[in-house]
Amino acid sequence: MEFYTVLAGDTLYAIGLAYNVSPQAIADVNGLNMAEPLVTGMNLVIPIEEADTEITYRVEPGDTLYSIAQQFNISVNDLISLNALTYPFDLSVGQTLIIRSRDEARAESPIETFGYYLPVSDPDNFLINSLGQYLTYLGIFDFPVTASGQIIGTIDADTLAAANNMGIGVFPVLTNLQEGEFNSDLGRAIVSNEETLNTLTDNIMVFLGEYNLPGVMIDFENLYPEDRDLFTNFIRLLYQRLHSENKLLGVNIAAKWEDLPDRPWAGFFDYSALAPYMDLAAIMTYEWGWQAGPPSPTAPLPFVRRVLDYAIASNIPANNIVMGLTNYGYNWSLPYEPSNRATTVTLERIWEIGRTYNAPIIFDEEVKQPFMDYTDARGIQHRAWFEDALSHYYKYQLVQEYGLRGVFYWTINLPLTATWYIVSNMFNIEPFIS
Fold first, then answer.
1. For residue 313, what is the enclosing H or E element?
2. Which of 75, 121, 122, 234 could be joined to 191 by an S-S link, Cβ 3.0–4.6 Å?
3. Residue 135's CB: how many other CB atoms inside 10 A?
4. Cβ contacts of residue 74 below 8 Å, gap of 6+?
5. Percent of residues in the chain assigned helix, strand, coil, to nearest 5
6. Arithmetic mean of pLDDT, 54-80
7. Is 49 exposed, middle or buried (0-12, 13-18, 19+ CB in 10 A)?
8. 329 sits in which H/E element
């Protein structure tokens, strides 16, 4: 597996010829249409079978042989030998180093993947059937909880059968959503009332038993910061009840790199207090650039790294953390106005825009994420930040570096085709074991 950044005038045929790879194979891995032109700056995965026997690393500014060896838990001598390096062993930025054989690395790199799934946009279960091989768990979104502790919604029998046939563990995703928004008052009503908590816990156990499900994902967001102890108590009680019947608990938690107990949205998540009570700590390591904010990277790698450092320092075990990956980005109109929200864009949509307006993709090496600037047909300027194959690859490297349990995808309903090839080549995706 290698990455190639498209230059002006490139074609799939020319790239395929250069790498001795079928152009159709490159198109398939990256979700491209052979009939459509490439966009300058595209980062494409090249499925080179010979190279796929190896795991490689691209040298970054400040890297040394020692730091790379430490990162991948190998010896400096092995790194020198694998790459036939000669004294004084100088490295250059962008240089590709062989780390170890693919089979060895995959055996040492198990991963669990959790895909959030919206059944309403996949009525024939096509996504489950086509992507199931890449998933350990499927989080069906969403099941709102009422102020009295009732769970709204049911699981479609065909959806459940499709997931079971693919060997995927199904989790219902419980939320405090009300009329499409995460409701602080609803969240307070649920976590502050002992009777409601008991009712909700009972209903969760009944729900899991009815469908024979292995666990539940709690996605309560935008609670009042002063309710953090009440939320922790809820998670503790639920964890204990679930574990008494060998069920798993996942919790979506907002990203932060310090406690910030009074901060809206993130304040009510007490990392240290929650740490013992989460089997899957699903950290939402994204949305720094968000729809109502100014144009900025949505998931800059240095920020993701700081969040992981803080989570682990707060005693959340690395092998319980599933790091969030998004399959989308945001497109802002310029000049930025807070009242003018950005629109959601997929990578496929970015490619369409690039072709329409002859706009190149630029990869920001500092944040390890791509962006695009363009002017539309009405003369309005835009900036879009988004994810692509290379930005996902850098985040997968964090899974290896930190020894994380895995990743979750928000959502598998949005296309980012190359990510499935990348994850299956870097890791041994763990199957769900009932």
1. helix 301-313
2. 234
3. 27
4. 99, 100
5. 40, 25, 40
6. 85
7. exposed
8. strand 329-334
Structural domain that includes position 65 = 2-107
Residue 26: pLDDT above 70?
yes
One-letter amino acid at 126 equals F
| Per-position DSSP letters for 283-304, written without gaps between them | EE---SS-TTS-S--SS-HHHH
Q: What is the mean pLDDT of residues 112-116?
A: 98
Strands 280-284 and 321-326: parallel
Q: Are strands 181-182 and 177-178 parallel, antiparallel or unpaired?
A: antiparallel
- pLDDT tens column, 285-299: 999 999 999 999 999
Reduced to 3 states (helix: H, G, I; strand: E, B; else coil), residue 424 is helix
Residue 307 has pLDDT above 50, yes or no: yes
**CATH assignment of the domain containing 124:** 3.20.20.80
* pLDDT for the residue 52: 47
**Mean pLDDT of the chain, nearest integer:** 95
Query: Sheet containing 369-375: which strands, arranged edge to edge?
Result: 343-345, 329-334, 381-385, 369-375, 361-364
Looking at the domain assignment, is residue 340 inside a domain?
no
The pLDDT value recorded for residue 101 is: 57
Residue 126, phi then psi, degrees to nearest 5: -60, -40
Q: pLDDT class for 102, splitting at 50, 70, 90?
A: low
The closest alpha carbon to 198, from 169, 245, 222, 233, belongs to 233
Cis omega before residue 196 (within 30°)?
Answer: no
Do residues 154 and 98 both lie within one domain?
Answer: no
Residues 189 and 312 in one domain: yes
Average pLDDT over residues 253-279: 97
Decide: 107 and 426 in contact? Cβ < 8 Å. no
For residue 20, give the CATH number of its domain. Answer: 3.10.350.10
For residues 189-213, give the mean pLDDT. 98
The pLDDT value recorded for residue 208 is 98
CA distance 71 to 91: 16
